[in-house]
Amino acid sequence: MIVPAPFIAAPFVADVCDDALWDRLAWSPDKHSGHVRIGFTTGAAPATGWPAVGDRCDVVYGPAEIENTHPAIVGADDPESAAHELADHVARNPQSATILAGVLRTGTEVSVRQALDVESWAYSTLLGGTEFAAWLARRGPRPLPPTSAAAPVLVDRDGTRLTITLNRPERRNAFGAALRDAMVAALDVAVLDDSLTEVHLRGAGPAFCAGGDLDEFGTTPDPVIAHFVRTAGGAGVRLAEIADRTTAFLHGACVGAGIELPGLAGRIVVDPRVAIRLPEVGMGLIPGAGGTVGIPRRIGRWRTFHLATSGTSIGAQTALAWGLADEVADVAPA
């Protein structure tokens, strides 16, 4: 069978829908059209209600005063411009943005473990894509990061509390292989020892975690091995298992894995000066450390799509208002 070119191109489109389409869109049986659907509104609620529109959109921009009406809505000074700006981001990385939308639609309908697998399969698919290859070419070749004599993760037990501290302050705790493996080993202690009733996650130095170590991107032998590293060998599934005992204390830059992994914790405390960002779509990827699983369970798939596709940064008060943080308090670097 020969697949015509328009069929291949059609999914890589971002529909931008305004108020006039709400009711028709909400009643449409085509819940997910196969491509990104972005809405904007001046504030008028559809006759069918926001949930019906939310079911059929990947995000809706509206005036700030209606942001709390439904988690699909992201407040904006100019909702129409915000919608078209996001559509431009989709156009720059259509493969990763479209796959992200599909993963987010699916992820909240299955278990956390299943959602982590879905995320990882999609991430491995994109590792072989042209958008990630283009990002690697723009970045250029880099040497692997230098090794350090210091332990990449510090583990301290005090009675029934286990404190796990990311300890690569000179690299802003970039989530590289050594740090990941050490964190997994520490989390395994908590998984196996249920006498530990509290697990605290902290970061040494100026940032909790500035995301994946960019010097290591593209170094995994193949996408299949990468999938098993992220899942069976990853921190996400372990954090999910002990979520009810875990509190993450975040300060400074929390980028990529630096917010994705804490998003799986049961409680998140953020410093007033925290900066949260998901940059992966701009690299031709999607969040791959649990970001499409824990974050949408806190703030909804729509705001997660907005954060990841736009690459915008949010602060403590927005994180608190959306539910990505449970408390804003001074968090001293460990």
From TrEMBL:
Is this entry keyworded Nucleus? no
Alphabetized, the UniProt keywords read: Lyase
Family annotation (CDD domains)? crotonase-like (cd06558)
GO function terms (MF aspect): enoyl-CoA hydratase activity
Q: According to the lineage, what is the superkingdom?
A: Bacteria
InterPro entries (alphabetical) = ClpP/crotonase-like_dom_sf (IPR029045), Enoyl-CoA_hydra/iso (IPR001753)
Tell me which SUPFAM superfamilies the record gives: ClpP/crotonase
Q: Its Enzyme Commission number? A: 4.2.1.17
Q: Give the similarity note.
A: Belongs to the enoyl-CoA hydratase/isomerase family.
Q: Which PANTHER family match?
A: ENOYL-COA HYDRATASE, IP11341P-RELATED
Q: What is this protein called?
A: 2,3-dehydroadipyl-CoA hydratase
Organism listed in the record: Gordonia insulae
Gene expressing this chain: paaF
